[in-house]
Amino acid sequence: MSMKLVGFWVLGGLFMLFGVWIVQNLQLNIGVSEASYVLAMIVAFILFLAAGLCWISVAVATRHGLR
């Protein structure tokens, strides 16, 4: 496996880490508006999608032998 594929694999892990960190720390309480809460949820969702995209692209590249 090439360093580029390993980099994408690790990048996907970091995206997932940051998305989980955002979701874990979200609480709709005093000082947090509904708009900022929804925005944080959207950002976390986009990070989850980016992580999945990185991992899927690595899986496809290794399956097809693109190194």
Unreliable stretches covering 5 or more consecutive residues:
none
How would you spell out the order of helices and strands? Answer: HH
Q: What is the residue-mean pLDDT, rounded to a whole number?
A: 89
Strand content: under 5%
> What is the overall shape?
elongated
Largest sheet: none
Strand elements, count: 0
* CA gyration radius, whole angstroms: 16 Å
Q: Structural class of the secondary elements?
A: mainly alpha
How much helical structure, as a percent, in the residues? over 70%
Number of helices: 2
Number of domains: 1
Distance between the termini: 6 Å
Q: What are its keywords?
A:
0% strand; elongated; mainly alpha; 67 residues
What does this protein look like?
- The structure is a single chain.
- With 67 residues, this protein is mainly α.
- The protein has one domain.
- 79% of the residues lie in helices and 0% in strands.
- It is built from two helices and no strands.
- Helix 1 (3-24) packs antiparallel against helix 2.
- The longest helix is centred in the C-terminal third of the chain and has 31 residues, at 34-64.
- The N and C termini lie close together (6 Å).
Layout of secondary structure:
Layout: H1 3-24, H2 34-64
What's this model, at a glance?
The chain is mostly helical and 67 residues long.
